[in-house]
Amino acid sequence: MSALRAIRTLPRQVRPARLFSTSTPRGDLARVTLIGRVGTEPEMSQSSNGTQMMKYTLATSSGVGEARQTQWHRILAFGEPHPAGLTKGVMLYIEGDLKTSVYDGEDGKKHTAVTIFQRYAQVIRRPQTASEGGETPTE
Question: Structure pTM?
Fold first, then answer.
């Protein structure tokens, strides 16, 4: 915090142009941060080059009462960036990169799919089981 105060006290002409990074921007960025509940049991598989990957969905909700809406996000994690014991119902914080793809559906129409390539994940809360004296949260 003292480093931030030191920068604030510098005269305007001495301040660095960008406080958040010293690197040169390399292009567009589509990064998201989500907090939600795992909606499906994660599926483990291997990519064509042998890298471990995990697919699952994450539900996020917004609004109150009858205006409450839930959105479902497709998450794909490569390698080992995922927490151990990830199961349906776990509240999770993730950071990832967006990738949008367009494909032709079985109905002949073009469809758009958004996938989040997970970079970081942290478990916030695991659901309680009936044996622990609680019920699984239904958020």
Answer: 0.67
